[in-house]
Amino acid sequence: MGFGVLGIRGLLALTSVPGVFGAVVERAPGPAPVEIIERDVVIIGGGAAGSHAAVRLREDFKKSVVVVEKDVLLGGHVDTYIDKTGAPRDYGVQCYFTYDDALDFIRRPALNLTLMPGLSRAATGFEATVRNVDFTTGKELANFTAPDAMVEIGAIVAMYQVLTSKGYDKMIEPGFYNLPAGPQIPDDLLLPVGQFAAKYNVTAALAKMYESTGGGPQARDSNFLNIMTLTFLQSFSPSWMKVFFGAADLFYVQGGNQKLYDAIATLLGKDVLYSTTVTSTERTATGVKVKVRGPSGTKVIKAKKLLVAIPPTRENLAPFDLNAEETDIFAKPTYGRYGTAIVTHPKLTPGQELHNMPTSAIADPYAPFLNTAHVLTFSSYGTDTDLFSIGVSSSGSSYAAFDERAATRVAQQSLEKMALAGTLPKLGCKKLTVVEWSDHGPGGFGVTPAEMRAGWMDRMYGLQGKRSTWYTGNAIAIDFTTQLWKMNDETIKRMLAAW
Ligand SMILES: Cc1cc2nc3c(=O)[nH]c(=O)nc-3n(C[C@H](O)[C@H](O)[C@H](O)COP(=O)(O)OP(=O)(O)OC[C@H]3O[C@@H](n4cnc5c(N)ncnc54)[C@H](O)[C@@H]3O)c2cc1C
Hints:
Elements: H1 7-12, E1 15-18, E2 24-27, E3 34-44, H2 48-60, E4 65-68, E5 80-82, E6 88-90, E7 96-97, H3 104-107, E8 115-117, E9 129-134, E10 139-140, H4 149-165, H5 168-172, H6 187-190, H7 193-199, H8 206-213, H9 229-235, H10 238-244, E11 250-253, H11 258-268, E12 272-273, E13 277-284, E14 287-294, E15 297-308, H12 314-317, H13 324-331, E16 334-344, E17 352-356, E18 374-380, E19 388-393, H14 404-420, E20 433-446, H15 449-453, H16 456-462, E21 469-471, H17 481-497
This protein binds flavin-adenine dinucleotide.
C-alpha cells in the first residue's frame, strides 16, 4: 500500500512550512495540508514494549521518536479504574517482578514513581472468601478440596529445574533471539504442555499455572493441555516460576499501575500521537514512511526505523505494505481473545470471590481446566465496595467472534446459572453492569509445532531490521513486562548496531 490520495508525486510537489512538533507542515495543491513528522524511529503501539522503547531510545540513546497509539492513553494491558472513593482498582496488570535490572526503568528519577512490594490487588490487605462454583451448572462444589500448595510449589520447582538444567530458559528468555533454528528446537518445547508435564512428572504444577495465566494463553485453544509448551511458557516463564518459590519479588506502582504509563506519557509529551492508527506504510532498506490518521487528521511520518510494538495480527498488519515473505510469516499464527472488566451486580456479595471450578475437579483438583469460553472468577475488591473484576477467555473461539458483547454474555449466563441453582439469590431482571471493559486482544498468539519445526520463529526473527522494520512485544517474546523490557534492550542494541 502506498500514499493513497496524495501519491508519491503529490508528496514531492508539497511545499514546506514550519509546523508543530518541530516538524514540517507541507501544503499540497489539494484542500487539506498534510503534516510531515520526521523522526529517527516511529514506534507503533504504546503498551509496555512501545512505551519503554520510546523512553529508552529518546532519553538514553538520544534518538528522536514518535509513538502511534490507537488508544487515548499509554499502557496497553494495564487497566487502573479509579473508583468513586479515589481508590485505584487494577484489573489488568497487577505487578512487575524482578528480572535482571529491568525494574530500574520504573525507578528512573524522571518518572518520579514509588514501587510497593506485592500485587496491586493485595494493597488493601483484603482477602476474599472463595466459593468454588461450577459456572456451567451454577452449583457450588461442596466437596471440593483445593490442591496441596506445597505439592504445587514443589512441582513448579521441579519444572523450573527441568527447564534450566536443559538450558531451555536461555533459549526463550526474554525473547527468542537464542532459540535454535526450527529443526534443532528441542522436542520438549514443541510438546503439548500436558504431555510435557506428564513426561517430567510435574502435572501437579498445572493447576497453579493455569490459574496464574488466567486464561490468556487458553484463549487460543479449546483444550488447555494441548497448548504448545513453548507458547505456554511465554505466559508462565521460568523467571516467573521463581516468584512462586520466593526467588523473585513482586512490585506494583503506588497509586495504580497506570501511573507508570501516565508518567511516561508526561515525559514523552507530544512525541505520542493518541487515538491514531496507521493507514499505510512504505518501507525500504533506508527508511520508512508511515501514514497515520488521528483526531487532527492525516499525518505522514518519515523515519529511519520502524518499531512494530503491536501484536502482529492480520487485523493489525492490514495497513502495512507486507511483501510476500512477511505475508506468509504473519498468515500463520492463530490466537484467541481475552478481556477483563470491572463489573457490578446487586446479587454479587461484596467480599466474595466466585471461582469457576469444573465439577470434575472434585475428583482431580490438580486439573481444574475450563475448555469453553469462560469467566475464571468474579473477584470482589472488598467488603466496602460493590466492584468485582472478571477475566473472560474465548478458549478456542475465533478472535473476531469474541468481542465485549460475547464476553459479557458469557459472564451474564454464568450469573444466571448460579441464580437458577440457588448459589446466588434470584437475579430478577437485573443484568450485569460492565463499569469498564478492557480488550486484551490476542491471547496465545503462536503457530503449530509443525510450523515452529519448519522454522517459523527463525523466519519471524529473521525479519528484524529488514526494510528498516523491527518487532517487539508479547506476541513474539515472553509475555511479562519486565522481561519484555529486556527483550527491548536487546532489540534496541541490534537496531542501533545496524544504524
Ligand atoms: C489481563 C492481563 C494481566 C497481566 N498481568 C501482568 C502482570 O501482572 N505482570 C506482568 O509483568 N505482565 C502481565 N501481563 C502481561 C503484560 O501485560 C504483557 O506482557 C505486556 O503488557 C505486553 O506489552 P506489549 O507492549 O507487547 O503489548 P500491549 O500492552 O498489548 O501494547 C500494545 C499497544 O498497542 C496498541 N495498539 C494495538 N493495536 C494497535 C494498532 N493497530 N495501532 C496502534 N496501536 C495499537 C494498544 O492499544 C496497546 O497500547 C498481563 C496481561 C494481561 C492480558
